[in-house]
Fold each of these.
Amino acid sequence: MSSILILNGPNLNLLGTRQPEVYGSETLQMIEKACRDHAQAKGLEVDCLQSNHEGELIDAIHNARGKHQGIILNAGAYTHTSIALMDAVFSVELPMIEIHLSNIHAREAFRHTSYIARAALGQICGFGSQGYLLALDALAVHLAAQRGDQ
Ligand code: DQA
């Protein structure tokens, strides 16, 4: 069974109370539960991890190698600043889907740049928590194609 790492970056532990008009009213725990249920229905396993620290996110990406077959990454504000996170994803050679709750392209100019995107299979943004489920669907299709499933 394929295993997916769902990795959330800084300030996403505050979902539910953090600017709900931008990020919605669901908590991270609710989103992770929805991901687990959705993944199970798709025959995938998920591990969820959140950190406010860039180095911990990098370590989690390194540790995914050999353990997970894909990564769903919401790097929060590190999306727009972290070459180190981008390099970490390139280094482990695992398919990664970048996700954001909000539509970063419709917001402030500094959010339009994503270093993460260069290392991503694709980017999903603007669909709120549903984006995580869309990313799971996309990874399931990608991994099945990689395995050569009919
Ligand atoms: C975010 C968008 C980022 O610009 C912001 O810094 C976040 C959340 C999102 O999910 O919409 O922390 O990644």
Amino acid sequence: MFLIPVFIGRKNDHELMKKLSLVIGLLSGITLAAQDYNDLPVPSKKQLDWHETEYYLFMHFGPNTFTGKEWGEGTEPEDIFNPAALDCRQWCRIAKQSGAKGIIITAKHHDGFCLWPSKYSKHTVRESKWKNGKGDVLKELSQACKEFGLKFGVYLSPWDRNHPDYGTEKYNTVFVNMMKEIFQNYGPVWEMWWDGANGEGPNGKKQVYDWKRFENTVKQFSPKTVVFSDIGPDIRWVGNENGFAGDPNWNFLDTAGFKRGIGAPPADTLNHGNYDGQHWMGAECDVSIRPGWFWRESENARVKTPQQLFDIYLKSVGRGANLLLNVPPDARGFIHENDSASLAGFKKLRDESFENNLLSANTFYQFTRRELTEQDIKLRSMDKENQAYAVNLQNFIVELPRAEKMNCIILREAIHLGQTIRRFRIVVYNGKKPVKEINGTSVGRKRILTFKTTSVTSFTVYLEDAKGVDNVIGVTAYLIDEKLLEK
Ligand code: FUL
């Protein structure tokens, strides 16, 4: 067993530098040790960068914006698409102001209508009245994203209710060519979204998708793109459209034997991940700010409130997943004012909640590490899941200089080393008295734990690691508006 006391001060002085180097030394020591032990899946560089994007917007836009349908049939006349005042810079400005890091646009939804003048379809913006057939939403949006420093992502529905080749091998080539067109003309494409939905039904055309070829096309033409689908290869669907990740949420998934769409892993597995999964596969929570995915007039008064969005944030980002919030542009080609007001309110709530870290000044940290005792091993052997990995334990004591009211603790795990924390317990003290105990399992990129407001002088985080050593790289604490935690 060993103890390492660490002080972190606020002042920018020599003393602080010494203290910081101690922290860095400590963390790098942990890092080296963890690399020695850890043979669990770890994220690739592009997956790791994706985790850091945390929150970004989805935009469903196309003929459905004008017809009020959720799933267009593909027979809608192209002229229906005519956003008189389309302004992608307005979309980007609002996204940026709300703290989103990127935008993913439905370049082609199930109706097959392409928001760019694809050479491989006759159902595109080119055939519409909009800008006399000279318009190109992907061009405008990709440029605006560059201007505003936002990542640009593309949703491309494999299911296509319009394309004449759909249902034949030729369609696979169409899909590949469309991806190439997008990568070459509008790149860099940060995320590619392959929707698993397919309602073709018993009388519809059945497509045998050449997924391997699709994956190879991304690898060859845009290797830095992260690909989302029910089973990745880079990011997994979270198994619901409410924006809620599971608790626990493991960044691992077993994909062998599963397919995209029908044949995907059960929703519950997607929601939680696999504890022992073979592949690193973070969860993305897609949810709409409105009841539907596409804008419609009748839902203007049903936009989610900032408080509802905050709750979603706690259950997505706060469980180590990413939040993909759909904010569909309206028929004018604008983000509707109700949606932008709600986004601004959501940003304000996040800022207010997390601007004042109660641990930033003169907090005392003490790490304690010990090897598992016989007793620990005995206890764990009753719990098969943990026993398989238990190697050591670490405690982490945090002492505040004075009592503070708090109701939120955030833990961050060094996921570049994998997800090794399998269980944790936090004991919160007021003076010598333990006043609260929080038990949890997964941490991941960010774990936001909220509780009833309590006066706190110190707390201890007990980490029970899966393999190797602990990987906590951040602990912060806050007092957030209690009304936000009522749900
Ligand atoms: C689903 C689709 O069927 C919806 O229309 C929407 O695009 C949603 C994000 O994914 O599978």
